[in-house]
Specification:
By secondary structure, the chain is α+β, with helices and mostly antiparallel strands. 29% of the residues lie in helices and 36% in strands. It has six helices and nine strands. It has helices spanning 44-48, 58-71, 77-91, 195-200, 202-222, 228-242; strands at residues 9-22, 27-41, 95-105, 108-112, 115-122, 128-136, 140-154, 179-189, 246-252. The strands form two sheets. A seven-stranded antiparallel sheet has the order 1-2-3-6-7-8-9. A hairpin with a 3-residue loop joins strand 6 (128-136) and strand 7 (140-154). Helix 5 (202-222) packs antiparallel against helix 6. The radius of gyration is 22 Å and the shape is globular.
Amino acid sequence: MPQVTAARYGKDNIRVYKVHRDEATKTHTVMEMTVCVLLEGEIDTSYTEADNSVVVATDTMKNTTYIIAKQNPVTPPELFASILGTHFIETYKHIHTAHISVIVHRWTRMTLDGQPHPHSFFRDGAEKRIVEADAIEGKGIEVRSALSDLLVLKSTGSAFHGFIRNDFTTLPEVSDRILSTSVDAGWRWKTFANIDGVRQDAGKFDEAFSTARAITLKTFAEDESPSVQNTMYKMCEQILAKEASVVAVDYALPNKHYFEIG
């Protein structure tokens, strides 16, 4: 007899925009996010018996996200995602896991006549900050932070040779080449026992993001790279050494190929 072995459902593309207005300085700070909520739990009958009494409507998920964002800080996004996920598993007793993902879109403050503008911003690239937080009943909160779509290029300082060659290989060995890639990097934190544990470490998240980004750029630029694999390993080593609460680091560095002519 057929049965449901695993199921989750939810609401994607929840657009959240929040402005913090500092009345003393008349300066605004903005935060724009795209949020996804996926829930797991005792929901099998919604599939097998058309029982909607176990369904938290996606409209409810969307509106809950807005209310939680209004009532709580949205920075750092790791804390916001953890608060949102905890809300779902504490409010609905049949929901045992809430998967929250947050994409933070870049808004950089304009500088006009040498001065930062109090309320005007521009998007200075496709790079994104990403957070994935899984609130799991009886286990805690698992958080992964990441940066994505950071496009980088250097015109020298990269080589690739000594690899396996056979009848299927046409790639020439090179001692100097252009290296370009779109960086996706992620770092997984130790499992937090509860939302209080996330709050306690909230000050680490922004610093870790800035550190990981700086390590990525500096290592990419300065490493005399014998291969992309070796360069990304060096990046991982440094991030792990900087933050003891980070337990794993992952990178994806797909080649953006440039071919020499002449």
